[in-house]
Structures are given as C-alpha cells and as structure tokens.
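Limitations
The structure tokens in this dataset are predictions for the assembled complex, not deposited experimental models. Users should treat interface geometry with appropriate caution, especially where small molecules or nucleic acid strands are included. An illustrative entry is reproduced here so readers can see what is and is not provided.
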Amino acid sequence: MHDTRQTERPLEDASAAMPDTSVETKPGLTVKLEGLRAFYGEAEQVKGVDLEFRANEVTAIIGPSGCGKSTLVRCINRMHEEIPGARAQGRVLLDELDVYGPSVDVVAVRRAIGMVFQKPNPFPTMSIYDNVAAGLRLTSRGRGDLRAKVEAALRGAGLWNEVAERLDEPGAGLSGGQQQRLCIARSLAVDPEVILMDEPCSALDPIATLKIEELIDELKQRVTIVIVTHNMQQAARVADRTAFMLGGKLVEIGATQDIFTKPSDPRTEEYVTGKFG
Amino acid sequence: MSSAGSSSDLLARFDVSPSRRRKDRIARTGVLAATVLALVPLVLIVYYLLRRGLGSWSTTFFTTDPTGNTFFGGSSIGGIKSAILGTIEIVAIASAISVPIGIGVAVWLVEYGKGSWFANTVRFFVDVLTGVPSIVFGLFVYIVLIVGTGSTYAGYKGSIALALLMLPVVIRSAEVILLLVPGALRESALALGAPRWRVIFSIVLPTALPGMVTGVLLAVARAAGETAPLLFTAASTHLTTFNPGQFMNSLPVQIYDDVISATPAVEHRAWGAALTLVTMILLLNLIARLISRRSRLA
Amino acid sequence: MSPASSADDGRPPAVSPSSSASKPPRESAASDGAHAQGRAHFQEQLRELEANALGGLDLIVEQLDRVLEALHHQDVELAQMVIADDDRVDGRYLEVHQGILSLLALQAPVAGDLRLVAALLHMIKHIERMGDQCVNIAKLIPLSGYEPPVHREMLDALAKMGAFARSEVVQSKAAFAARDVALAEDLVRQDREINRLNREIFRLAIEIGDDPDTREWAMHMTLVARALERIGDNAVDIGEQVAFVVTGLFREFSDSSRPPAPRAV
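Predicted assembly:
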C-alpha cells in the first residue's frame, strides 16, 4: 500500500481539528464496479466502467466537467436512481455483494455507503447534536447509547473539541468548514464501510480544506474513501490512487504518484498538465 | 491633456443627464399616484368600518345572541355572540377537513408524483379550482348533501363547502413551500439511508412548517369571510349552538341578514359585525406574518 | 495501471437528458478560457527555460574550444580569458536555477513537465561542473612553465580527447533538444574512447623519462586529461536525463561490461 504524501502543514492553533484516533477502527470494504453504465433518460453519461476502490484507501476520481465522475459516484450508493428518469446498469460489488442485486434493500446500501456533498447541508431545524443523531434516528437505530455514538462521530470528524460545549445550538450556525465536518460526523454516525465524497472542499476556504484533507487521511483507517475532485492538487495530496475519467469512460487508474509523474496514457498526461480541462 | 481636464471628462461621463432626471421624476410621480389611487378605497373602507361599526361594540354585543326582534331598537335586538362562535366552529371544522388533505396532496405532488402527467393534470385542476366562485361550492354542497339526500341545512355542510373552497389554496401554498425546501436536504437525508417517507416526515415537513402554517392561516382567513357558500348550507339561526348537525349562525350570514333590515339599530349592528369580522381576519394575518418571519425559507 | 476501454475522441459528451428528467449534478467548472491561457504562458516559460539551459551548453563549447587552443599554443592570455568567462557560465546557472524555482512555486508542474524541470535542474548543474573543468584546464596551462618541453604524442592524444569531449557536448545538446534517446545512448560510445585515451595518456606519462621538467609537465597533462574525461562524463549524465524525461525511468548508461540497472524514480 502506498504512503500518502507527507507535506508540511502550517502550525495550527489549540482548537485545531485533530481527529481523535482513540476511536475504535475497523476495516473498510473493497468496492468494485463492473460494466457500470448510467443513463439520464436516453442519454448515456457513464459508458461502461470497470474500476476497483481498494479497502482502507483513498481513491480520487479526476476529469474534466461532464466526464461523468459525479454520476459514477452517485451510482455507487444508488442515489443516481432518485433522479426522475435516471437509471443504472451493471454491477457494483461491495466486497462480494452486488448492491444492484434484485433483493437488495436500497436503504441498507446507503447506510453502508455514506455520502458527503459539495455544499455543506446540515439539517436547518436541528441542533448540532440532533444533526449527528439524525442518521441514527432516521434509520431507526436511535436506541442504545445515542450520546456516546454522537460523541464518537464528532470525535471521528475532528469536531468534538470545537462543539462539545454547544451541542444544542443550531447546526446552521457553524462556519462552512465546521458544517462540512458536521456532515461528515453525521455520515460517520451510522457506521458506514465506505464514504463517498463529491467535491467536499470546493465550497470551503483553504484552511478548512486543509483540515478536511487531514481528516480524510485519518478516516481511511476505518473506511474506504472515494473522492471526486476537480482540484488536481487536492487529489495529489490526499489520494493513494487516482483514476482519470473522460467522456464517461475510465482512461487510466494508478498510484497517485505515477499518475502525476509519469502517466501511461497521453490523454492523462494532457489533462494533468493542463493542456485541456 | 492636463490632469484637471481628464478628471472633468470623467465627471462628464458619470454625470446624469437632465433629460434622464426628468424621466425619472415623471416615472416616480406616476407610480406614486397609482399607489395613492389604490390606497384610497382601502382607507375609505377602514374609515367607514371604524366610524360606523365601533359604535356598536359593547360587552352585550359580544355576549348575547341576536334575538330576532326588529321592532324595537336598543338592547332588545341582542348582540352577535352566536355568529362569532358559529364562524369559529364552522371554519375550524372546514380547516380540519381541508388542511390534512391539502397538505397530503401537496406532499404527493412534490415528493412522489413530480413530473408525471398525472401530477401535472392534478396541478392544473387545482389551479382551476382556485378561481371558481365561492357560490359554486355552496351550490354543489346544497345539491349533493341537501337536495340530493333530502336532509336539511347543517353547520357541518357549511364546513364542507368552505373546505372545498380552502382546499386548492392550501394545496397551492403548501406545494410552493415544499418546492422551496432545498433538494440538497432531501438528498443528504436519503444518502444517510433513510426511507423516503421518513425523509418527508422528519426532515422536509419540519423545515417547511412555518411557511405552511402561514399558507394555512391565509386560507382560513379567506374562508372565514365567505358568505355565499354558507347561505345554502349552514343557513342561519339566532341561537348559539355547538352541534354541527343543526343550523348554525355565522358572521357573514348575520351581516347579510342585518344589512337589509329596516330597523336602523339592526343595520348598525351589521356594521359592528363587519368590523368584528375584519378584525378577526386582520389578527389571523398578523399571526401568519409573525410565524413566517421565523421561517428559514422564502 | 491498466487503461480501461478507450474513449472515442476524448471529448466529453454533451449531456441532453429528456425533458422529464432533471439535469445531472453539475460539477463546478473553472472558466476554461482563462485556464488554457494560463497554461500557454507556462508552456512558453518552460520553453524559454529549456532554451536558456541548452544555451549553457553552447557556452561550454565556446569555453572548450578556447581552452583547447590555449593548450595547443600554450597561450596564457587566452587561458586567462577562459577563467574570467566562467562567470558567464555561473551566471547562466543562477538564471536557470531561479527560473526553475519560480516555475515550481508558481505553476506546480506535473507529469512530463515536472520531469523536464527536474532534468533541467540536473543539466544546469552538469553544465556548471563542465565550466569548472574548463577553468581547471586553463589554470594548468601557465603552470607548464616558460618553455615547456613538448611531447608530441601526448599533445596529439590530448587534442583527440578534446575533440571527443567537444563532440559529446554538442551531441548531448542535440539529443536533449530532440528528446532523442538513441542519440543520448550513443554518447557512451564516444565516452569509451575518451576513457581509453585517458588511460593512454596516463601510460605515456609514466614512461616519459627522467627529466624532472618533462615529468612535471607530463603530470600536469594527466590532470588536463582527467578534466577532459570529467567533461565527457558530465555529457553522458545529461544524456541520462534525456532518457528520464522521455521514459520517466532513471538509469545509468554504461558500457556493455556492466548491464544497465533500471531504477524507478
């Protein structure tokens, strides 16, 4: 397994977001896409992709706008089919189980495969505590020691120290970066095996972005992470492996270091050096 | 070019031309005139209501039923207690019918049926219904529930007519509010692994609640003032009754009855009743306004 | 690192969902026009930097020509000029070095561009070393004394070495500019000749005789030979950089006695 790159971080203040690794870790799962195709009505946006996301690794998907990377990722947790007229074909294997299997419960799939979106969106009517607990309550798993689970999730997201004193305040009152970490905590609370991130930092300032990137580095010990990003430097910093998509197809996937120093495919070379984008 | 010259050039470019100023003033005056013109009847109504209605307000006015005596004036004609209570009860029942159904339809239109031809058809007919004259609803209930069944007027039949009136308004305003709930909220709730109905009840509806309450209160305010539907359905009576199966008095009908009376005291009472009705509606609007201010949408 | 099914023309498809379906989630796109322009500027800067660095090799050829002539005619003044002009080589080094730092900091080059920048950094270092070797040769010339004894055979060998060294420098520049790996690998062949001549000169120096002045002169000439041999090695190193830029692999060129060991960088 590749080392993630260690770049120098700016010195952080005392209330900085350092996730608490005393939380119990457990291995994530491998996700394999086989012949995945995705449609919006008649238009085919993902045209047959075979791809593997290794367990407990961060895989980044890069590519120009419209290449289908967001659509691809939404097929993994079956959110794609929520759009009217949209459908997907092919297999998505979580470990050995095909999440598109005939008897598979969509809701259970989404509990195992969480998602963090581009714009942070805590539930506006709820406090910080309720936001994190929402996942558990909505999925009827609100029994047991809710308080402990909420704290664990907030620690896992590196937010506990900043909000422990004000769990009853509205979630929408936090800064952008904190809100996004709250959304991550909310996803963590339901204990997923995989977390999908669709451009999680593009609405955030550079400091908040850095904190989340560090968080991703910590989180991969517990979950498999797939991150879609249009920011190549971010992919370079954060990902173990990087996949390049173009026109709905996978062009190349490899160790991030290789993709950014000697990519095999000339199209990848052109894209990462910025000849088109 | 000297620096003074170039800065005065700049000034010339940024200065507003006199013809522009003139046009601006004309437009402003015109729009102001239109506003004043529109306000005049409104002010006049309020003025007349206050002048002629305030005088009949007294404790007996609110606490005694109309007696039906029209020969003598003064205290023998009674107050409007039954009318006030009747309006409240009829409208309350109408709301109890129309609000749950209306919100249910709106939820279906936005959350489940979006984009389907059936939903579009439903929406079209709802829009049509908002424009139907209120007397038609009264007539409909009259024919179906009174003539058709051979039974008589009753308070609850008035409620049904008002509920039909309120239904399209509730549906429309609830739908608008639900559409304003950001899709991202639903998405993130779904992505957590919540079933759709859970998402609607626990996330979407609570977020939309203040806006929907506002819409409901406005529908209620409208229904409270409708006379025509009640004429053929609840009819009127003088006595206070809480049994919706009987004839029931209501403010609009009371006003209708009193206004055409020959006795000036009774006519005076009509003004007082009208002022009462307007005040009640005003209060409802104020409450709706206060609640909507606390809303996080629109 | 296996590429999956190939895309047709490499351009993303236009998305046209049916009227009832909503649009696919939009990814935020940077304004493409400005992006392309920024990179055009960067490409130009990169080309200039490369031209600058390769120009350094031209400087070396100049220096080499002059110092060989000074050697041939025992021209002390010419030797002094060569020493003074090394400032130009050092100046070129600083220029290119600064350009590289600037490019790395401001443009964050990746993939092929990154390899090129790394190679230029190596190249300019080798150029600077070659310049220093020319200075070393120049410094040895006045030391040969007022009336140096001249050994024909040795001077011929040195002239031949000088010719090979010059040819290697010119060829390394051509190979880099054209990204010609075969041409770069050919440098090894010439370098073997230089090494052979170096050993030859060393042997001649040992057998030169008992005259102390002659022996002193011969020792200085072995040092000259060594400097020329080092120039050849530096040119071969530049050739290795050519292979790195093209393939992404760094391996030492060597003669057939030692097989090359591929090393991923």
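Some entries come with short summary sentences. For this one: Chain A has a mean pLDDT of 88.
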